[in-house]
## 1
Amino acid sequence: MTAAKSGTGPVLDVRGLTIALPTHSDRPEAVSEVSFSVERGEIVCLVGESGSGKSVIAQAVMGLLPDSLPLTVGQVLLEGEDIAHAGRDRLRQLRATRMSMVFQEPMTALNPVMRCGDQIDEVLREHTALGPAERRAKILDIIREVALPDPERIVMSYPHQLSGGQRQRIMIAMALVLEPALLIADEPTTALDVTTQAQILELIKTLQARHGMGVLFITHDFGVVAEIARRVAVLRLGRLVETGDKDAVLKRPRHDYTIMLMNSVPDFKPHGRPIAPDQPIVLQTKKLDKTYAERGWFSARRVVHAATDVSLEVRRGQTLGIVGESGSGKSTVARCIVRLIDPTGGEVYIHGEEIARRSHRALRPLRRKVQIVFQDPYRSLNPRRTVGEAIIEGPVNYGLSRSEAFERARRLMDLVRMDAAALERYPHQFSGGQRQRICIARALAMEPELLIADEAVSALDVSVQAQVLELLEEIRERLNLAMLFITHDLRVAAQVCDHVAVMSQGRVVEYGPANEVFVSPRHAYTQALFAAAPGRDFAFGQA
Amino acid sequence: MAATGDTRYEELSVEAADIRPHETTWQRVKKSGSVRLGGAALAVLLLIAAAAPWLGTVDPTMFDAGSRDLVPGKAGEMMTLDGDLLRHTFWFGSDSLGRDIYSRVIYGTRVSLFVGVVVALLSLVGGILLGLVAGYIRWLDGVIMRVMDGIMAIPAILIAIALVAMWRPSLSTVIIAIAIPEIPRVTRLVRSLVLTIREEPYVEAAISLGSSTPKIMFGHILPNTIAPLVVQGTFICAAAILIEAILSFLGVGLPPEIPTWGNIMAEGRIAFNEYPHTVFIPGIFLTVTVLAVNILGDGLRDTLDPKMAKRI
């Protein structure tokens, strides 16, 4: 500890950390022999796909491991003091004062029934002997430091009165109010929109430089890594496969796994595939509108415009991307086109036939032409039906016999590169990426002309995402499908789209060929959105 | 985004680790201590009910004025309707009419379990149909739920008494009278489940696959409500057994000649001070049965609850 106080030696030094998993898990250890360090004044990114054990490491450092995951071997040195087996009282002293943590979801990490100021005050009351006036001054100072406007008002606000980004700033303020030596940030920007994310990343960088603390930043997003890290540690199935400086790991990866990951990160540049001219229009929307009216008996009507004046078209064999932040109305448009919700105004044409106004009965023959793949692979398949039943459901609805439908399902499994034996099994026996392939097969079983992918790869890890994107691309080409690709991820959009529509607050603010929009965005919002994309100019896997 | 060949991908991917070893629901249910205990106790009761005639019982309606108010374990004689004299040991004693309490309690098990199970099934079926319709067909929601609220506003036991009073007391009227006040509870549960499940992407996928409304309701939504309904069913079963006993005890349930635990207790009440066993013995059977059903229900809830199922 003496070395630490004088400012030499790493802030955090993890040595041979091994954490056991309960018996009957997929592997014996959550984390195996992981060693890395965080120096004073540097940001180390711990990256890995889901299940790699990165959050478990953060919990181990903070002493927050559940009893089911015991720390078996290894040391966790915080400023030279081994806290791997520290008692509860000692850990409580250290938390907030020497080490702090910022979590992914700022809404659930803050107490919803406590004012933000009181939540920060709680930390001060617990760990310092300051009087009320000093504490208040300190709270206002830290709120100013995390660049929140009007500190007096923020102190009196409840979490729900603030935006996601503001809430995350409060979390950071709480974590930093006692100037800890180590900040652990566990996916702090994952739940935020890209423009907010950019601001929070900037804030963490600024504060880190100003206070000279060590930051352990956990993320799965390589764009974020490129933006913020000085050094990177790559985890795979609980083992550290590669550590090094950011440029070394991201540009000249040595381990096969890291190389594969870097190859999987989509480029920010549009793909530049030639667009075949004069293809027939498959989907056209004209001034599509969707408003939600909140009707209260005693209150005034409140109208929410989810989509306004949306006019788009998709031709056969082409992909139109709709990009935008959460709440921009992109999914609303998709759901109106599939008629999962009824548009309030405007027209939707599928091959020239208007469907926005049709009754559900009259719509039925046209439903098969438009199919959709959803975001969450864990919720898009009925857990009580076999994969085969799921895939044949549509064709059977439209009069195909079960045996013919199963024959088609077998062919489709081949197309999505899965074993036909999967048809007999239930969804829970498959991973997220495999389930998404099954969902694609289910959609294709209808032989649609328009395939809508509503954030279809957003829930997948980057390597799996690359596989599914490749599959979608191959299918679009082979079946000459029109595709509507909805995503918040600009990299993915650049990779797959021929045309791009940028949506903000329910309106299309910019619409054009991907090459033009990505290279020279005209609308101010598009420019801001693209500028905020983390690591946009970083060349992954290229020295 | 370079294409990584499939073999290479398999080798490097961590995706395989995504699939956790999965215990089937049935395996989890079998492991639960509560399910085993409650299930075993119920199995014994079911055996008793099924084997009632061979467990040393006599006709539970037969009485002999010479063997009135016997204490448990006492031997006595009974005259059958054919005039034969039967030597019989009254293990649980006899009541004020000279009926064998042991035989009545054992045969009463049949009535209680039958009432419990049939009421649970009836109210589940009624509640499922109403709940599905209310949850999925929105314009019927208001109508159905307000009727259900109306029924729920009246105490269950009062509705049952009123219904039995309206009809002739018999097994079927008692069952229906107990089932009706239970239906709104099931309807509410099913409706709330439907409201969540109907928003699931797999239901939306079924809509876009052109599946008909009945197919979505019964093929996609209903199977996903089964687990909580099984649990609810056990609690209804326990409640129904109790309500039947209460109705019989109050004299508004099954006719007194039918041996039910409630009837036995009602008759024993008069001479309770001298012969408390006439109330206690059927009371103990009633308690054990209701407890067994509830323990089974608790165990099922713990194992079938989807939140608990998500643990590693």
Note: Chain B touches chain A through 36 residues (CB under 8 Å).
## 2
Amino acid sequence: MLYAVLCYNDENAVGAWTREEDDACMARLAVVQDGMAAKNRMGPVARLLPTTSATTLRKSVGEPLVIDGPFAETKEQLLGFYMADCETLDEALDFARDLAKANPGPGSYEIRPVRIYRPSRMKVVD
Amino acid sequence: MADIRWIDAALSAARPQAVAALLRYFRDLDTAEEAFQEACLRALKNWPKNGPPRDPTAWLIFVGRNSGIDQIRRLSRQTELPDEDKLSDLDDLESEMAERLDNADYRDDVLRLLFICCHPELPATQQIALALRIVSGLSVKQIARAFLVGESAMEQRITRAKARIAKADVPFEAPGAPERAERVRLVAAMIYLVFNEGYSAGGETTDMRAPLSEEAIRLARLLLRLFPTDPEIMGLTALLLLQHSRAAARFDANGQIILLEDQDRSRWNRAMIAEGLALIDKAVRHRQPGPYQIQAAIAAVHARAATAGNTDWTSIEKLYSALEQMSPSPVVTLNRAVAVSKIEGPEAALALIEPLAEKLGGYFYFYGARGALLMQSGRGREACEAFGRAISLANTPAEAAHIRLQLDRLQKEGAEAKAAS
């Protein structure tokens, strides 16, 4: 079963990391991902820019409304996600536990089974 | 389990909001700062044991407030009758605790704190130092290092700024819409100043001063989170990100300036560019252009060009001319002239900047740009003269060295031409 692991945290706090802290955390998370990749289980991974850079298109009766935001009404924001192929929920939870160990502190991982998955059809130039 | 690293990050993330709320409560910068320090000490003791609180900022405000009150009570017992005026709403402490500060409160608190730091009575250097000390929480030592002055001199500068603030009449009620807009404008200007302190560094000072640019970006993001629909704040944040994205490519190993067109674009920071471009795209949708947005749009044109040769100079010229109309300044005209030189050639640009000589007579970039334009149009002797003036006006050794390099090239070419003839 394919799972999406959605990362929620306070973007103010994550934004306050120094570059060294950020790099170190990303390096620890990369090790966890490499472990999954070695088992051929690691899908796409994305880290999102802050919500201040986001725009929302709200569907409505007529023309959809384009607004800034989402505004951080909640304490935690969606900061990124992992896709992983796991046999069971326990396996997906283990993956999330490893991520949490690599990136301790507040925040949460939402483990969400995936219903439709279409592999990428674009060429990403980094 | 609880890790000192995330506690550090949580404390610095909470700092502006917590100090701002404590300032509203105690109405005194020093008391607010000390109360926050005390709350941080308790957090360091408490959080590793009990885990992180659900809302670290609210926790720090509450604990800071209690410790500040204790402190004032202790002092008042030693001195005189308690000064109730010093504390607003002492009685309903409990209810205030229950009151979860909502975003509107935070917004005005943090804005007030930033605004206090850029009080018009303070000279720019004091504004920046105060903001870095109070809002960013940099140590006096760190700030002194960034400004290349001694620690005691910086301590004095900050103390003087605080004394002036204490005497100035700072309004504590929630600002009305026009005052709020005015404050946001002043705060944005102060953040831009902080950025330029870091950005205009060069040579050996780059490493010491670069943190100022990063701090300015943090402050801009903070302001943007408070005013997420303000296109000029989007523009400011985009501008700083796009400028700073080039930081690693701006100087060579010897600290020499590398001009935009000669920079290795693979060293530009792609994440910062992505965020900057996203923000300027968002801002433009509001159709309320402003100087920060236009400058960000100019930086965006450079960021989007895969090579220097691909730069869309026509767009840049149009943007500078819009900026010229919005906020006329000889410096803007000078920049437009550089764009004109790329489109129409150096002679057209020289004609454009000739009238600026009087106003920009003391400006390094004027002679640097003029020299380069003269060099392009083959007027070597005049170019040498302009470069000579530029060197004498250079603000940093890196600037002087950069001009000297062009001068050397010019003289070498001149000598070769002579030898050939």
Note: The interface with chain B takes residues 10, 12-17, 19, 21, 49-50, 52-55, 66, 68-69, 71-73, 75, 104-106, 126 of chain A (CB under 8 Å).
## 3
Amino acid sequence: MRAFPFVIFFLAAGTLPAQHGYTLADIEAGGRLYRMTCSVCHGPDGDFIPGIDFGHGRFRRATDDESIESIIIKGIPNTGMPSNDVTEQQAEQIVAYLRSLPAAGKAMTSGGNAARGKAVFEGKGGCRNCHRVKGVGSRMAPDLTDIGVLRRVAELEQSIVDPDAEILPENRFVKVVTKDGTEVTGRLLNIDTLTLQMMDSQEKLRFFEKANLREYSLVKKSPMPSFKGRLTAEELADLVSYLVSLKGI
Amino acid sequence: MTARIWLFLAVAGSLPAQVSFDRILNANREPQNWLTYSGTTLSQRHSLLTQITPENVKNLELQWVLQSRSLEKYEATSIVADGILYTVQAPNDVMALDAATGRVYWTYSYTPEKDARPCCGRINRGVAILGDTLFMGTIDAHLVAIDARNGKLIWNTQVARAGSGYALTHAPLVIKDKVIVGTAGGEFGIRGFIAAYDAKTGKELWRFHNIPEPGEPGHETWAGDSWKTGGGSVWVTGSYDPDLNLTYWGIGNPGPDWNGDNRKGDNLYTDSVVALDADTGKLKWHFQFSPHDEFDYDSVQIPVLVDMEWQGRTRKVMLWANRNGYFYVLDRSDGRFLLGKPFVKVTWATGLDEAGRPMKAPTAATTADGVLIYPGNQGGTNWYNSSYSPRTGLFYIPSWVEYNTVYFKIPAEYNEGRNFGGGVLRPNVGQRRPTMNRLEENEGYGAVRAVDPKTGQMKWEFKMSDVTDAGVLTTASDVLFTGGREGYFFAIDARNGQLLWKATVGGQVQSGPMTYSVNGRQYVAVAAGNSLFSFALRQ
């Protein structure tokens, strides 16, 4: 695979603007504190708690560095987030570490042109046949309206050239065969002990009792084709730049 | 009030009788009540009520819901005494309800100290009762006594320092005139203990050190000063055998959880069961399931006490499905190992020796590069209760099947009240899951596994799509109740594992169901999400 000429885009690409200049020593100290204090619940990449993903700059309640520091010290009442016996300086160091996570990955850009990438997305790439952005496009594949917040550059590139490499559980497809032999394939929305829900190819929400199915199975391969060789390196870089620019409504 | 009126009230049963310890000991004589956390002090979670049967269970319908004013997990098992249900709204509000209607009589609200820091949610698993008094442990490590009639505080005893990471999360156990609790906080480098308090005054009467200090037997199993931060928490309720006058408690992981470099040795009494004299707290025997643990295999399960035929004679045994993936049978009079078989996939050990000690696999140690181990960090089972049915002779285990974790070791430095884990985890299944369940079977699943304790062999399995944090209740009519993370409440045939009935309760079941009866009508109650539900047969 051809490597992109990455350039550092600094923290402006994060979902929360950084407000302090942090030293490498702060980040390292914060990393130690994070592993000691935070990682049991939040996980090594900061993504164990639904709705929170430090590795992608995604916070649920905090709006700025000070409020993150306050939450670290005081906790959030009536939630699993406890108060912590850390000093303000230590809380700042943890924030420095949290801020460094997206900078290490997502905030790097392919160096492409987002406007040209939008044209690839809507034209040659045919991406809207399956994906949706800001209310336009199909609902079958993941809605990409805020994909620039959720995924790093390298992850986006991989998804385009090698879609089977990583299929997140929330993006899986399922095929069911009903007792009368009808096959239905769609995007899996939920599966439990007794039932299964999906969006079918007509974008209809479908409910199945497992007891009424002859069989069901997850589709192992991504329905998305690989664009390796179908886009030029420049088009690919442009497309990734466009995706990185999608930060939600 | 005249004696005649008193007599009338007593006959009419409109005044709740005091719950003597004799009543608790003989709780099976009054199965309409649920007088202690696990139903009886033997902790079988088996009710003698039989109104709900495999044939009519399909006619269960919801009678009432208590919607708690808390967004914390509802892990409490309620108790019921004479038509009054006592439960806990997380973290520490005790509530008295009419058990037939769910209407609230009173609420006692406890405000924990602000430096309370329970590791895994501001939760509580229930109360105990003796006489007219309720007892609750709090997340800031206090034990409080509350008047069961009006919800007023009677006494409040500090058990340990919340700022150091201590907490009380389990339901206390009443034995005679004592209230027994153990301390949680195993992720904070605490030094856990079990202690008994005078039910009348709250005064401490005895204390057992889960981590022995210099001069105490077992201290030699800790290198250097590592015993001072050795963990050994307690966070589920113990059991009691009145004939032996022994109380049994499961003890949690050593600290730091995932890095054993500085605590070389077996690390007694972590990951063990201890049998204590109920009057003095003196250790009678112990059995360690997972010596020198680095995988967080708390032995925080409820000791299930059964008298059963064992190789030609009736024997007092203890059944134990451990977080480490093995099912054990021990002689509870002396702790002798009788049987041990894995009930889920196990890779950290290659087997158990004749004394029940695990033979560790060569790879069974955490490393900086990560090591993949079955069962994973949440264990083959965990704190949620198993059940034993004397009718079927089967032991029912809420299980995590085909479940693993990759453990990474990192340095651990002790700072009071701060996390002292020494590792990071990459779970395959269990924690890092999508909000909705979209997993395949080979990624792990939850189940109730019915095991024959005489052989350790699985007789049947009820599979769930997702893993489960729900306890199991069995009844003398062979109905098994349980739930799971998917928001179902299930009734299953205890004889063969067939699904009999289900209800959607709209939230994860993270507690054990219990059953009781009011005016001849059997109810079964279960907490799910943030609410408590009570079902009974359609009238």
Note: The first helix of chain B runs from residue 3 to 12.
## 4
Amino acid sequence: MSGKRIGVFVCHCGNNIAGTVDVAQVASVMAAEDGVVCTSDHAYMCSDPGQNAVIAAIKENALDGVVVSCCSPNLHERTFRENAKAAGLNAFDCEIANIREQCAWVHRDPGEATEKAIRISRVAVRRLGRSRPLEPIDTGVTRRVLVVGAGIAGIQASLDLAAAGLDVLLVERQATIGGRMMGLSETFPTLDCSQCVLSPRMVEVARHPRITLMVSSEVEKVSGYVGNFQVKIRRQAAFVDPDLCKLCDDCAQVCPVVVPNEYELGLSARRAIFMPYPQAIPATYTLDESSCLGLNPVVCGKCRDVCEAGAITYDRKPETVVEQVGAVVVATGFDLYGQEQLGEYGLGAIEDVLDGLQYERLCSASGPTKGKILRPSDHRAPKDVVFIQCVGSRDPARHCAWCSKICCMYTAKHAKLFKHQVPDGRAYVFYIDIRSGGKGYEEFVQGVMEEDEVMYLRGRVSRVYQDGDKVRVFGTDTLSGQNVEIEADLVVLALAMQPSAGTAAIAKTLKISRDKDGFLAEAHPKLRPVESVTAGVFLAGTAQGPKDIPETVAQASAAAAKAIGLLSQPRLSHAPTVAQVRSRLCTGCRMCVDTCPYDAIRLVQGKAVVTDVLCEGCGSCVASCLRAAIQVKNSSPLQMKEMIEAVLRV
Amino acid sequence: MAEDPKTPYEPRIVAFLCKWCSSAGSDLAGVSRIQYPANATPITVPCSGSVSPQYILTAFRKGADGVLVSGCHLGDCHYLEGNYLARRKLFLVKELLEFIGLEPERFRMSWVSAAEGAKFAQVITDFVADLRPLGPQDKLQGQRP
Amino acid sequence: MIDPEELRTRARDLLEGGQVRAVIGYRRGSRGWAAEPVVITRPEEAQDLVWDPSCVHNLALYLVQDRRRRGALRESTDRPIGILAKGCDARAIVVLMQENYVQRDEVYIIGLSCESSGMLDERKLAGAAEGIDPQALEAVDFEGDAFVLSSQHQQWRLPAAGVMAERCLECRNPCPKVHDTLLGKEPREQERRGTASAPTMSDPFAELQRFEQTADSAAARWDFWSRQFDRCIRCFACRSVCPMCYCEECMVDSISFTVTPDTTAQEKANRLRWIERSASRSDNIGYHLTRALHLAGRCIDCGECERVCPVRIPLRLLNTKMERESRERFGYEPGASVEVAALLASFRDDDPNDFIR
């Protein structure tokens, strides 16, 4: 039908295929198939002799194409396509028929399995019969990377990228970089000060000539494709000029507004004009438009009047910039699981029930208590502190199914920090089990249990309520089988980690997918852990899943390495299996335009036109077109029809 | 229903599997050696959203006893939203086929992820079991070859 | 009810003033009482226009033909074409605009409200009353909730509901929503319903419901449809009359494939033929199901396919089935808006999912 000379090669895969499928029978039936001019079977097609046999057969029989009936195309499609190329054919002149995973391994009856292997092989022959040689599409590269989110992941990725000589555009939603790590006190298991290790990196980011930092900014729109993205970034109005601001604090002194300080997680107050942290980068005061009395000299204007440097201007508007980048690293981090869902633990209702990040601020030397662990209600040092693990985590029925991974470790650290400050205090930890996989982690937890004498109670807490100036905690110690009641001064909850609030939006903007829990999804759970499904978009840090600082840094470096690898190529290639319009038939109805998830199709003079480099070849347009005016190269409806017939032929 | 009681009727299923999830799921079923009936022949497509109703009608008209379209779970589509488009389109195909009197069991859709080898095997097993009592599909097909 | 004279004046004015280059309308046909579509270009032709219960045709079809003709002749124009549009014709025009086939400024829509009446179903007429010979009729006119039929010597006044097309009885929008000028009024709900003895409106999808109640099993439905499909002679009248079937090539009809002097033998041989031309049951099913699916979200229920079917296949059932699913499951109303994305080029998170394993 197609006039091609096709060879079919059937692999025994040792006994893996041949144990069930009669490979000789498959080969002999395929020999009678239209277009097939030679067939053979081999013990291991993927072995050197097997591959050489394919190459030799192509040359000897002047084949136009080969079908290899073997294992899943995910394993050896590339191998055999390289063979085809080595023999002078095109990569698309080779098709794989998966008769192992989809046949030999899942069926016992040799007769049935052999028949199915024949049908599968026949489908591949028909697909090949109509496919055309295609060459990858060549595109240029912008050697610049957008990093979204400037927590430790974004910072690490930016520094690695910049060190490799790439330009970096680092975009952060908040007024300072540093992210969650900036709010931590000391880090497990070494108890080194979080800010002390982080702030040098932050300064380096600020100083690095290759890194352009945009704080108070968000990515609004991303278009284009790998190597050539256009990103639209919206920057909030900057009322304070960082170059003029002298950090004198005069403005904050006169500001009449007092609101909870989000950087201290509500544990202290701030003014409408303030500095998030003393180490904030960029080092400047920030005017928060939402709490300011109105940016209007008639209403207030005190900060502007008092600023001797003249750094404050009210007449500023948000601005939108469009930048070109070649790759994107997404490092948008995590939030804690919403306290509104956790009524039974009293979070938000009882003043002395805190979440883990709030407790970190209490322990932090730069925090509201200057590092003294004082409970919020009366600023006394607590004597009895209850730490509750797995709050919201590992509770598929009511909350989050996943393990938040770091809580076992930071709770141990929290308890240790408490015992260091209050040696005669009592610390209790409710846990389900302890997960302390990591270098030095298990030893750390053991030390907390044994040397610091923290009481570990295996069980869930059923109730937490205010009782006078105490917080009463009811729980069960499942090891002793006894109910436990603790009169605590302070309760600290290890809340589940969840993707940060903007994750869904940035995923949509970047056209990358999220897993069932809302974390950004990697392209392959094992083999492509830092890539997203969209080429050129890489993932780093807790936006992809719960992880601790070393893992975050490692992943950020991996994402940077992937981006560096990508952008080190002088040209990029794009899969040529893209949609193609048969212009004569197109009526410009726009269905394909509306269907395309990549905005790859537009109308030009009333006809659909595909931008090849944007098209991923999904075929949604094909199935939506009423006029058969669009098809994906090498997945044509004609091929589909012949494959369907091949399945059903007896 | 089979004409010859010695060769019992074996339903013939055309299974359109998306490359990223369901085909990978069927690979996992293989790797895990989960056994299921050999009645379904897979045709790999880039995305469930690329399956044109015409493919399904043609499969039935060429004598398929059952047609399966399997894609990624909602939200997991490699192409972001192809499975949503497929769901709407193929719902109408299913409704229409039932409307003209085709047995509802004959057309099936499933979401099978790359991690759901066991589910893939179950989908096929169930499908074959549901098709057996119906006998050969001779309503839409021209002549049974 | 619209005075036909008003309609003629409007058309004449538009042509005289040069606002439109032509007007698509109806005139008295060669077959006595029945109207036929006409395209008039001169003001004096306006006097030929008619408006009566025999104006069944969906004139949007002629808009499609106008575009085709202009395309073939590479004829450009800066003036719109006028078109008379009942509620259903106007919905068809909306779909054509939604699909970018016709631009809003290319048409001047003279909306005609059917008010509380509708179009005559000639087949119903045959058995409607003793002694009426449709061949002998000379005119048919609206009169309140009745149709007045006249032959040379006699007049009959029949309650409209008894002889009105089913699709008109089921119509929800007898008054066009999109128009440049409107003749007639948007009927009030009360008027639409008619009287208890002579209702002029039935439930939406009433005929579909009746079918589903009678054929309430897969076997019964198949019994019905297999006989219907067996009758199809593949004359493609349904396709020819449908304003939505404007494809250059019909993907399920190989004879519509364009062949030019450049078309090679190999190209011809490799043309994808989903469906063979033979009028076999299987190919007929393939054709009609493809058509129903291609019309999903696009069919605006003008009922023309069913009217012109020479073997009387109840094609509206297939199309209204799709329309009911679009409305009820997807909240999508065909022909309601130019701006929305097409039914099958869009989705909602809460589309039906329980049929999926």
Note: Residues 15-75+82-134 of chain B form one domain.
